[in-house]
């Protein structure tokens, strides 16, 4: 049976002498495979482009890759940061070259296969039109991809590479040369007491901050949205406008105002509320616990209007027939909320709610603007209210511990990416079918 199928395929070949394997092997020198397929203009263009790239970039790539290995040889003359940057650029250009080289091999093979099956090679005009139709979407995407690589990917790679060097305040180029230290920074992070204790404390607070602040703002928004959506509530437009007002005020303005209100000495919260009622003052900016309570309170105030707007829109889209059917079945308020309202809200807004958790996990603005991550904690390189992102900022711009900041950034990125990946996959809004 297998022999008969093979013979049938051979009989269908219009041009069996044209060998795709030969075309692929010839394309080891870009353009020759296309010439073998009688696409001479295309082959000449590919050969010229690849030859120009090799002539113009080969010296830069070879020196860049060599510098990436050594990171310089002469202190005070060689800047390891420049060698590292050139090495990363060399890797990017090499990846470009290899990608187009593989596409060149695939193109020669596919064209040869099509010629075997009777495909006629188009003339120059038809070939140009086909290339334009096929490549036009890539032409539009190209500038954005170029910017993405050099504005996002390049800095990320630079940060990743720094995590495996000894770049810090006491070993900074160009006075000193950087050296590759492997996973030493990650090892120090989990073995040296100061680093380990700080990392565990900051990570614990970051997780608590993310879960408590985000969950409270979602719960408050859901409660208010359901309450205002009740048919018995009047002046709905006015109430909704008032609830959305905190969202309209720039966040940094609100944070600065709250920072003054929570001031230990002259803040309105202590002077006008806490002291008259309890005859004491709370050290909002001096005690880590109270600082964290203040931060969670401020974040709930800042975050609930957006979620409230989402929930309000979803609630107005739920058909009243669902509730009428539930009333006929004798369902109480809690049963209607659990089986109708809550599933609808979660199904429609789950991805955006997950983004709220991810945003608060990296919410640098409120932590830094309120108290710069303070107050200071003895035996730690981070403040009492620092989360991972603000700790990284302090290590980078205040302590110049670039290597440790880069290592922590990698861990932070992996945590956020893992959380987002699994949560998005589990959300019902990303599944084809779902039942309430």
TrEMBL record:
Keywords per UniProt: Cell membrane, Membrane, Sugar transport, Transmembrane, Transmembrane helix, Transport
TM annotation in the entry: 44-62, 82-103, 138-164, 207-229, 241-262, 289-311, 340-359, 402-422
Places the protein is found: Cell membrane
Record PROSITE patterns: ABC_TM1
ABC transmembrane type-1 domain mapped to chain residues: 203-423
GO function term, MF aspect, one: ABC-type maltose transporter activity
Membrane topology: Multi-pass membrane protein
Primary location: membrane
Gene3D superfamilies: MetI-like
GO cellular component: maltose transport complex
SUPFAM superfamilies: MalF N-terminal region-like (SSF160964), MetI-like (SSF161098)
Signal peptide: none
Biological process, per Gene Ontology: maltodextrin transmembrane transport
Family, per entry: Belongs to the binding-protein-dependent transport system permease family. MalFG subfamily.
Known role: Part of the ABC transporter complex MalEFGK involved in maltose/maltodextrin import. Probably responsible for the translocation of the substrate across the membrane.
Protein name: Maltose/maltodextrin transport system permease protein
């Amino acid at each position: 049976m297998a022999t008969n199928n093979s013979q049938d395929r051979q009989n269908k070949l219009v041009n069996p002498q044209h060998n795709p394997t030969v075309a692929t092997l010839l394309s080891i020198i870009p353009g020759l495979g296309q010439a073998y397929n009688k696409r001479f203009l295309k082959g000449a263009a590919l050969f010229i482009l690849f030859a120009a790239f090799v002539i113009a970039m080969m010296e830069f790539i070879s020196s860049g890759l060599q510098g990436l290995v050594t990171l310089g040889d002469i202190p005070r003359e060689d800047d390891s940061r420049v060698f590292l940057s050139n090495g990363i650029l060399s890797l990017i250009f090499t990846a470009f070259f290899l990608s187009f080289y593989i596409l060149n091999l695939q193109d020669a093979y596919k064209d040869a296969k099509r010629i075997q099956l009777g495909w006629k090679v188009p003339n120059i005009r038809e070939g140009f039109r086909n290339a334009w139709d096929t490549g036009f979407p890539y032409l539009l995407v190209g500038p954005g991809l170029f910017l993405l690589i050099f504005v996002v990917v390049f800095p990320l790679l630079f940060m990743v590479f720094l995590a495996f060097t000894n770049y810090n305040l006491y070993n900074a180029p160009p006075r000193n040369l950087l050296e590759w230290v492997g996973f030493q920074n990650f090892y120090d992070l989990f073995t040296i007491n100061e680093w380990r204790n700080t990392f565990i404390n900051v990570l614990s607070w970051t997780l608590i901050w993310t879960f408590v602040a985000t969950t409270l703002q979602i719960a408050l928004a859901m409660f208010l949205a359901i309450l205002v959506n009740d048919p018995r509530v009047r002046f709905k437009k006015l109430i909704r406008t008032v609830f959305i007002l905190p969202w309209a005020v720039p966040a940094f303005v609100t944070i600065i105002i709250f920072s003054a209100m929570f001031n230990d000495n002259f803040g309105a919260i202590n002077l006008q509320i806490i002291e008259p009622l309890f005859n004491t003052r709370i050290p909002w900016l001096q005690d880590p616990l109270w600082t964290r309570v203040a931060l969670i309170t401020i974040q709930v105030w800042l975050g609930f209007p957006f979620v409230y707007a989402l929930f309000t829109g979803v609630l107005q889209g739920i058909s009243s027939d669902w509730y009428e059917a539930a009333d006929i079945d004798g369902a109480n308020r809690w049963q209607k909320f659990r089986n109708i309202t809550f599933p609808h809200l979660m199904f429609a807004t789950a991805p955006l709610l997950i983004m709220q958790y991810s945003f608060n996990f990296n919410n640098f603005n409120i932590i830094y603007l309120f108290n710069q991550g303070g107050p200071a904690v003895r035996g730690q390189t981070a403040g009492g209210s620092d989360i991972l992102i603000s700790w990284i900022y302090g290590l980078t711009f205040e302590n110049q511990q670039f290597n440790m900041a880069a290592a922590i950034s990698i861990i932070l990125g992996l945590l956020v990416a893992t959380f987002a990946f699994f949560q998005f996959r589990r959300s019902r809004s990303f599944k084809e079918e779902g039942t309430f």
